[in-house]
Give the backbone structure.
Amino acid sequence: MYKALRLSIIMIGVFFCTFATVQAQVDQQVLDLQQRWAEVNYLLKGKSQLEAFNTLIEDARKITMSQPDNAQAWLWSGIARSSYAGAKGGLGALAAAKAAKADLERSLELDSTALEGAALTSLGVLYLNVPGWPIAFGDDEKGVALLKKGLEISPDGIDSNYFYAQYLFDEGEYIEAQRYLRRALNAEDRAGRQIADQGRRTEIEELLRLSESNQ
C-alpha cells in the first residue's frame, strides 16, 4: 500500500509538472500575440497590415482552441479581430467585429479583470464604433458603460483613459477629454510593451493637440 501511495504521489507530481510546462508555453504564446499585435498595429500599413492581422487571428484561434479557459488568449483574439475590422473598415469589416465581440465576451466570462480590464475597454470601443441595429450591434449606452467599468478596474491605465478621452472628444467635451488624456500620458510604462506604449502615446498627444485646438 505504501508503494501504491508513493506511486500515486509521484504521478500527481508528474502531472502538475507537465501542466505547468504546458501552461508556461501557452503563456508565452499569449505574450507573443501581444507583442506581435503591437508590431502589426503600429508598424504596418495597408495590405501588409491586413494580411498580418489575418495571420495573428489564426494563431490566436489555435491558442483558444487548445486552451479554451485562457481569458487572455480570448482577449487578444478579440483585440486582433477588432483591430483588423478597424483597419479594413466598411461593411466588409462587420463579420470581424462580430467575431471580436464574441471573443471579448468570452474573455470577460472567464476573467473580467484580465490585463487590467482590457476586455471591458475593448468591447466598449466596439459598441461605440460599429453601426447600430439592424446593421450591427452598436450601442453608445452600452459602450460608455463598459468604458467606465474599464476605468474602475484600471483608473490610471494608458488605454482605459485614452479610449474614454476619445469618447469625450467625439462628444465635444474637449476640456474633460484633456483631463483623461493627461492621465493617460502619465501612465507607467508597461513591461515588454514598448511598441504599444510608444504608439499609444503618439495617439494621445495627437488627440490632446486636437482637443486643445477645438477648445
Q: What stands out?
A: The CA atoms of residues 71 and 78 lie 11 Å apart. Confidence is low (pLDDT under 50) at residues 2-25. The domain at 2-154 is CATH 1.25.40.10 (Serine Threonine Protein Phosphatase 5, Tetratricopeptide repeat). The chain has one domain: 2-154.
